[in-house]
Automatic annotation (TrEMBL):
Protein name per the record: Autophagy-related protein 18c
Entry annotated with the keyword Isomerase: no
Pfam families (alphabetical): PROPPIN (PF21032)
Organism for this UniProt entry: Acer yangbiense
SUPFAM superfamilies: WD40 repeat-like
Gene3D superfamilies per the UniProt record, alphabetical: YVTN repeat-like/Quinoprotein amine dehydrogenase
Lineage of origin: Eukaryota, Viridiplantae, Streptophyta, Embryophyta, Tracheophyta
C-alpha cells in the first residue's frame, strides 16, 4: 500500500481478506468481498450490486491543467482525498504531504471516499468520465489497483459514506445502506429532495448511527441501527444545509439554508442542547465540525470566515486541559458523549453573548444568541471545509486547491493564527 495506514483499519482489512477465502469472491480469489447474490434485490429498487468492472488504464500525469472536482476528509480528519479531472490524490495534514495519487486516462472523480487510512475507497466518476459514470459507485482496492465491486443506480449518486461495516449510498430521494463484507442491502431510507447528498455516520465500533434529512423541511432523521431506534428531529424551519455527528453518533449539529444558526441535539431523545449564531445575514454553510473531545464546534461558510464556538455540553470526567486524538484508544473508550451534562458553561472558552440577554423573550432571538469565540478569515465565495487537528488546530481545505492550518487560543479566542498555507495541486511534492 502506498499511502498512510491506519493500524486498526489495516487489521480489519486483513481479517476480511482472510474470511473471504472461505468462498469465492466478487472478482478474484484475492478480493475482500463474498459474492453478492446478483438479482436478489427487489426489481423496483434503484440499485444493484455487481462484481469487478476491470482495471482502468493508468497514466503518469502531472499537475498542469488538472482541475479540482472535490475534497473529502477521511473519518479521523487526518487525511483528505482530492478528486481531480484526471483521478484522485490523498494528502496527509500533519505534517502536510501528498502521500498518494492515481491518474487515470478515463477521467476524473466527483466523489472519493476513504475508509480511514486503508486501501479501500469508494469512487464515483464526474461528468465526462468515460469509464466511471456518475450513477455508479466503484469500490476500489488500491492494494490490487482495481475495482472489486460496483453499485449501479438509475440516478446520479450524491454522496457515499463508509464505516468499517457499512457502505451508504445517497441519491437525491433515497439512501441505501449495504454491508461492507458481502454487499447485501440492509436498509432503504426515503428522504426529502437531497441534492447536497447530506448524510453522516458514527464511527465508534460500539455505536451505529446514521443522520440524514427526513421527509419534511428542516427535519433530520436519526437511525440508531444497533438500538433499532428511529428519531425524527425538527431542527430548523428552513431546509437542512449541513449536518454532522460526533464520533459516537450521540450528538448532532445542524444548520439550515438560512445559515445563521447552528444547533446541537442529543440524538437519543432529540433534545436541543445548544444554539450558536454564525451571523445575522444569511449564508451558505459549507461544513460543520465537532472536535473529538466535544469541546469545540467549527463552521465554514461562503462569507469567508471559519468560526469556532465553545460547546456547553461536557463529557463527564473530562479534563478541559487535555488534548485527545481521534485515533487514541483511551479517547474512544473513555470519552463518549453518551454521558452528557447538558448546558453546563465551561470554565474557559465561553462564547460571547449579548449584553441585552436579560431581555430575552422581548427582543428578537439574535440578541441572546451565542456568538463565535474565535475566527479565521478566508476568500469569500470559495468553498472551504474545516476539521479539527491536534492541540487546538484547524485544518481548512478549499476548492481553489488551498490548504490552511491555523490555531486558536482556547482561553482568549479572537483571530486565529495561520501556521501553514499550501497550494496542494501545484506542489511538486509527490509521494516517495
Amino acid at each position: 500500500m502506498s499511502f498512510c495506514v491506519d493500524i486498526d483499519c489495516f487489521k480489519w482489512v486483513l481479517m476480511t481478506v482472510s474470511s473471504s477465502h472461505m468462498s469465492s469472491t466478487v472478482s478474484t480469489s484475492r478480493g475482500i468481498f463474498s459474492p453478492p447474490r446478483l438479482g436478489a434485490y427487489d426489481e423496483s429498487s434503484d440499485a444493484r450490486a455487481s462484481g469487478s468492472i476491470g482495471t482502468p488504464e493508468l497514466e503518469s500525469g502531472d499537475s498542469e491543467g488538472i482541475e479540482l472536482l472535490s475534497v473529502f476528509w477521511n473519518q479521523d480528519y487526518g487525511c483528505f482525498a482530492a478528486g481531480t479531472s484526471s483521478g484522485f490524490r490523498i494528502y496527509n495534514t500533519e505534517p502536510f504531504k501528498e502521500t498518494f495519487r492515481r491518474d487515470l486516462k478515463g477521467g476524473g472523480f466527483k466523489i472519493v471516499e476513504m475508509l480511514f487510512r486503508c486501501n479501500i475507497l469508494a469512487l464515483v466518476g464526474g461528468e465526462g468520465n468515460s469509464q466511471y459514470p456518475p450513477n455508479k459507485v466503484n469500490i476500489w482496492d488500491d492494494h490490487q489497483s482495481r475495482c472489486i465491486g460496483e453499485f449501479s443506480f438509475r440516478s446520479d449518486v450524491r454522496a457515499v459514506k463508509l464505516r468499517r461495516d457499512r457502505i451508504v449510498v445517497v441519491l437525491e430521494h433515497k439512501i441505501y445502506v449495504y454491508s461492507l463484507l458481502d454487499l447485501k442491502l440492509l436498509h432503504q431510507i426515503e428522504t426529502l429532495a437531497n441534492p447536497r447528498g447530506l448524510c453522516c455516520l458514527s464511527h465508534h465500533s460500539s455505536t451505529s448511527v446514521l443522520a440524514c434529512p427526513g421527509l419534511q423541511r428542516g427535519q433530520v432523521r436519526i437511525e440508531h441501527f444497533g438500538l433499532n431506534i428511529i428519531k425524527l428531529i425538527n431542527a430548523h424551519d428552513s431546509h437542512i444545509a449541513c449536518l454532522t455527528l460526533t464520533l459516537d453518533g450521540l450528538l448532532l449539529a445542524t444548520a439550515s439554508t438560512r445559515g445563521t444558526l447552528i444547533r446541537i441535539f442529543n440524538t437519543l431523545d432529540g433534545t436541543r442542547l445548544q444554539e450558536v449564531r454564525r451571523g445575522l445575514d444569511s449564508a451558505d454553510i459549507y461544513s460543520i465540525a465537532l472536535s473529538p473531545n466535544v469541546q469545540w464546534l467549527a463552521v465554514s461558510s461562503d462569507r469567508g470566515t471559519v468560526h469556532i464556538f465553545g460547546l456547553r455540553v461536557r463529557v463527564v470526567g473530562e479534563d478541559s486541559s487535555s488534548h485527545f486524538s481521534p485515533q487514541s484508544p483511551a479517547f474512544l473508550t473513555q470519552n463518549s458523549s453518551s454521558s452528557i451534562d447538558a448546558l453546563i458553561p465551561p470554565s474557559t472558552g465561553a462564547n460571547p453573548g449579548s449584553s441585552l440577554s436579560f431581555m430575552r423573550g422581548v427582543l428578537p432571538k439574535y440578541f441572546s444568541s451565542e456568538w463565535s469565540f474565535a475566527q479565521f478569515h478566508l476568500p469569500e465565495y470559495t468553498q472551504f471545509s474545516a476539521a479539527f487537528g491536534s492541540q487546538n488546530t484547524i485544518g481548512i481545505v478549499g476548492m481553489d486547491g488551498s490548504f490552511y492550518r491555523c490555531s486558536f487560543d482556547p482561553k482568549n479566542g479572537g483571530e486565529m493564527v495561520q501556521h501553514e498555507y499550501v497550494r496542494f495541486l501545484k506542489t511538486d511534492s509527490r509521494p516517495g
